[in-house]
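Lab meeting, action items carried over

1. Structure of the four-component assembly. Owner: GW. Status: complete.
Input record:
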Amino acid sequence: MQIGSKFTIGVHIITAIACFRDMDRVNSEFLAGSIGVNPVIVRTVISQLREAGIVQTQRGSSGAELTKRLDEITLYDIYKAVGSVDAEEGLFHFHEQPNPDCPVGRNIHKVLDQRLMDAQRAMEEKLRSTTLADIVEDTRQALDNESNEETALLQAESRM
Amino acid sequence: MQIGSKFTIGVHIITAIACFRDMDRVNSEFLAGSIGVNPVIVRTVISQLREAGIVQTQRGSSGAELTKRLDEITLYDIYKAVGSVDAEEGLFHFHEQPNPDCPVGRNIHKVLDQRLMDAQRAMEEKLRSTTLADIVEDTRQALDNESNEETALLQAESRM
DNA sequence: GATAGTTGTAATATATCATATTACAACTAA
DNA sequence: TTAGTTGTAATATGATATATTACAACTATC
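Predicted assembly:
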């Protein structure tokens, strides 16, 4: 099992909006092309990000705007916004009908639940510790490295 | 999405084996009754626990035995044994075709992967910190509380 | 050694869920 | 007015979790 890709899609969307906002307002079709999924998926995720108060959009008008500073948006916010894990159910699916007539069956839930929640929370805390400012920063860094490598390559070629 | 119930079923199985081992060897049918699932599911999970070196079984002969001490079996061992999360894929499903022609698309994976792994690992470390000795101990504790409550109830009744 | 009970596993069915896709109304910008 | 865009419902498709049936291999016991 895996946490659905809407989470990484959400991160991709916000990163792209942040990276391209000075050049262009990116629409759902462009984003879909960058992400490699259907535009309706992008619009769905953007809707969820809007409901979570992370972006703002206008029907008919192209592109979305961020409503928070990048360093105020954490990975956890996006994970939560797109409903990566059902709040009621939790990360771990417990078998649903342990037998109340068995001493183990009627107690296993009680005994395990807290520890499973702790594990889930540890994961979520980690997600809280990264902001989209970190992600965008690292993306820019990666782009810089790309162009440095390209320059180095060109220089190497010209030396031959 | 959720981590499948085979994980909690695995914990239930080992707890039951530990709790009942002095009284009875529990077979897959009994366990299925306690857990509330089909006996074949139980046998499948036991097979995976056996492959992980946690239990020992014998074809035709009833019941499974633990091959490790309870304090040497962690929740993580069971989580791993039943393949709760695919080792290749990881906990987070990344969208599969980010566009290499887009500056964000070709870098998002690199930028996110480490942080997602860190989050997954934080969850897994928490699972490592609980042993089956803890679980069995807590289960016995819960059973004690049950009988204390029962006694209290009986005493209350006799006073009326 | 014959019988009843058990495990191991393959094969299949079913239900649920993630993702893709089509379609279209509501809206904006030019 | 026209072309482009968003928001969302409806539906399709494929993957996966769990249930179930079936049976061969094996053990324990009478």
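2. GW to write a short summary for the group page. Key points so far: Chain B has a mean pLDDT of 93. Residues 4-6, 37-38, 40-41, 58-62 of chain B lie near DNA strand D (CB under 10 Å from a C1').
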